[in-house]
Design brief:
- By secondary structure, the protein is mainly β.
- The protein has a domain of about 130 residues.
- Helix content is about 5%, strand content about 30%.
- It is globular.
- About 5% of the residues have low confidence.
């Protein structure tokens, strides 16, 4: 059983008269909420950096914290289509960078089973509106990755590779960096 948590970095003024501050993590756990109010749908925002994690509260790591995986987002973009644009309505999953749903075998496609025949609202938007609990259950994270390509003359006749990625990183599994124990090379 797992759950999803986010931690937004917030600035804290240590000494206001010196304007000295530091960053701290303000943790939050996904609850039984509507996606616009809660953590079941998230956007990447440079002005509000966050860490997204899938936590197993039933397994404690060597330093006393629950083990988890961090979703480390890479470069991303938001849709330039308007909300009433038909392709965007059919592909409602592009409205958020990250969605969290309880695992269901029949929920396999982010846009629903038949996106080309949809009037919109199927898939992730419908599943998260159901306000199903995502704590202490098997969950699915749906990461939406996007990019905008403004063609340039060097892209023709063959465009070079454009690369986008994300990482799933262990969090609190180890007491220190496991690469420190690698044997020395001869």
């Amino acid at each position: 059983m797992t759950h999803f948590a986010g931690a937004r970095a917030v600035r804290i003024l240590a000494l206001a008269w010196l304007a000295v501050g530091f960053w701290a993590a303000a943790p939050a756990t996904a609850q039984f909420r509507h996606p616009l109010d809660g953590l079941t749908a998230q956007e990447q925002m440079m002005e509000k950096p966050e860490v997204w994690r899938v936590i197993n509260p039933n397994v404690i790591g060597p330093l006393g914290y629950p083990v988890s995986y961090e979703i480390k987002a890479g470069h991303n973009a938001v849709s330039l289509l308007t909300e009433d644009d038909f392709p965007r309505r059919r592909a409602g999953f592009v409205d958020h960078h990250l969605w969290v749903t309880p695992q269901r075998d029949n929920e396999r496609f982010a846009a629903g089973d038949f996106p080309t025949q949809s009037k919109g609202g199927d898939g992730l938007p419908a599943w998260t509106k159901a306000n199903r609990p995502v704590e202490n259950t098997d969950i699915v994270l749906w990461y939406t990755m996007g990019f905008h390509h403004l063609p340039r003359s060097e892209d023709w006749p063959v465009m070079p590779t454009a690369r986008h990625d994300f990482e799933l990183r262990p969090f609190d599994f180890f007491p220190r960096n496991p690469a420190l124990d690698l044997p020395k090379t001869p």
